[in-house]
Each structure stands twice: as C-alpha cells, then as structure tokens.
Design brief:
With 78 residues, the chain is of the alpha+beta class. 35% of the residues lie in helices and 24% in strands. A four-stranded mixed beta sheet has the order 1-2-4-3. The protein is globular, with a radius of gyration of 12 Å.
Length: 78
C-alpha cells in the first residue's frame, strides 16, 4: 500500500513514482494507493495515466480517496 496522506502535491507525486517503481520490480500485480479526498486524489488519474508501469486502475466506490492500480506484466529478460 502507498499512503500519500500528509504530503504536498509535488512530494506526493515523487513518492508515488518512486514507490510504484519499487513495488513493480518486486513482481506485484497490483497496489492500493490511498490519497485522501483532496488535491492528490484529483491528480491521481493523470499520474496513473502517465506511468508506463500501470495498465489500469479502479477508484474505490466506497472511498474515492483510494485507488487500486494494476501493473503491466513485467518483461522477462532472456
């Protein structure tokens, strides 16, 4: 899980990008990102769309400040 509560927008973006990279390389298939319901939540769809490691996401209907991101399949070097 990535929790972005308490960050300013720019710091949250850096934290999101770094943690997505780290989690992706562990081989995880998905990750939950908690943003709260403010500016970071409004930015999240753009951040996700611009990240090549994420193929799709779902925003939780019961909590719009929570996103589940699904990773693209990791390429295996031969």
């Amino acid at each position: 899980m990535i929790d972005l509560h308490g960050y300013h927008v720019h710091e949250a973006w850096k934290q999101f990008t770094n943690q997505i990279d780290n989690i992706y390389y562990t081989g995880a298939k998905r990750v939950t990102v908690v943003t709260g319901q403010g500016a970071i939540m409004r930015e999240m769809p753009t951040w996700i769309a611009n990240n090549p490691k994420i193929k799709e996401y779902r925003q939780a209907s019961h909590n719009p400040g929570s996103f589940t991101c699904f990773f693209v399949k990791k390429k295996v070097d031969k």
